[in-house]
Amino acid sequence: MQEDKTLKRSTEENILHLKKWNSRLIKLNWSLFGILVFFEALIALFYCMGYTRDAEIRKFDYIIYFFLVPASIVLVTILVMQLINTKLISRFSLMAQGRFSVLTLILIISEAVAFHHGINVVYALYVLPLVVSIIYVDRLTLQMAYGLSIITYMIVFGFYIRYFVPTVQYSHSYMDVFGTVGIITAVYTLCEMVLTRFRELINLAVDQSVQRMELSKEVSLDSLTQLYNHATFYDKLDEFILNSRNLNRPFSLIIVDIDNFKSINDRYGHDVGNVVLLGLVSTIKQVIGEKDLAFRYGGEEFTVLTSDANAAFETAEKIRTGFSARVFPAFEHAVTLSAGLCTYDRSYGGRREFFSAADKALYKAKQSGKNCTCVAET
Asked: What is the SS3 assignment for the chain?
């Protein structure tokens, strides 16, 4: 159940492209900062040229308090919030990073309103976080944007402006407050409707994507051992060869084959033979590393692609000795295997020549009395 939830959450993040949109939201915050600075500079220019009514304020003071100070505070806010997002919030989900960026946007808007409260249209900026939050198709993010927009607006108007800038009462009355809150609430209601529709579409897309992934997984796995199958082996082998050529990443191929397996099936039946196969699978999983891949190549033959070429022989030997040490109740003797090993280099060319070299090493192990590991000759 937990794995299904994790898979759906990961699939949803991929469908929504949250990483890309988080990056775009950060750019939006910087763009908003640039727009604010531009208009603040423009207003300051008009003031210095005598086109505004606040003639009682000295030009130098106006530039300081209505241009440099607001721009500096917004700049520091963005830098601090972005630093927190990068160093702390990034440890959590992409959705958490997005919510934090929305919070940053709300703070920028609140600072713009606090410094430019005399321009009534600036209060309309509070609907921007609600609209932006829709891109995350997440109700909690939208509710957070709505709640914080209302709270910060009331703090800015009800506390800062009313008590520290009393002259604003002539340009922004309590009726304006009710109207602004009403507009923000109306936009929130509309965003809720849009989000509900988006969520229906996203859920449908996630379910379809998960079904395709599960179907693809079933096609690529062997039904008995749940290891990758023959066809998938060659796809992964091509990837390893490509990485080795382009990125200079050495790797090795191990081929193991259970000795005298046909006689086990003939004498004890296929059910017992399957127990032996699963015993080998268990041994392989216990031995190989996290980056290594194991496959059921066919019948009683298995392959392993290991990125640790230096430890490949040791890995093959651990598989061989670990399997021969297993006790099967149906037998009075140990079951052994033979292994062939080959480390890739450019001299092998394509996958066919490389696999053939490992297969010849396996054949040599069989001819050498079985129950041993042989390395391909270079």
From this structure: CHHHHHHHHHHHHHHHCHHHHHHHHHHHHHHHHHHHHHHHHHHHHHHHCCCCCCCCCCHHHHHHHHHHHHHHHHHHHHHHHHHHHHHCHHHCCHHHHHHHHHHHHHHHHHHHHHHCCCCHHHHHHHHHHHHHHHHHCCHHHHHHHHHHHHHHHHHHHHHHHHHHCHHHHHCCCHHHHHHHHHHHHHHHHHHHHHHHHHHHHHHHHHHHHHHHHHHHHHHHECCCCCCECHHHHHHHHHHHHHHHHHHCCCCEEEEEEECCHHHHHHHHCHHHHHHHHHHHHHHHHHHCCCCCEEEEEECCEEEEEECCHHHHHHHHHHHHHHHHCCCCCCCCCCCCEEEEEEECCHHHCCHHHHHHHHHHHHHHHHHCCCCCEEECCC
Whole-prediction pTM: 0.52
Range 230-375 classified under CATH 3.60.140.10: no
Domain locations in the chain as residue ranges: 2-212, 230-375
How confident is the prediction along the chain (378 residues), in pLDDT tens digits per residue? 444 555 555 555 565 677 888 888 888 889 988 988 888 788 777 777 765 555 556 777 777 777 788 888 889 988 998 888 888 877 788 888 888 989 999 999 988 888 777 777 788 889 999 999 988 888 999 999 999 999 998 888 766 655 555 554 445 677 778 888 899 999 999 999 998 988 888 778 777 776 666 666 656 888 899 899 998 999 999 999 998 988 888 899 999 999 999 999 998 999 999 999 999 999 999 999 988 999 999 999 999 999 999 999 999 999 999 999 998 887 777 899 999 999 998 888 788 999 999 999 999 999 999 999 999 986
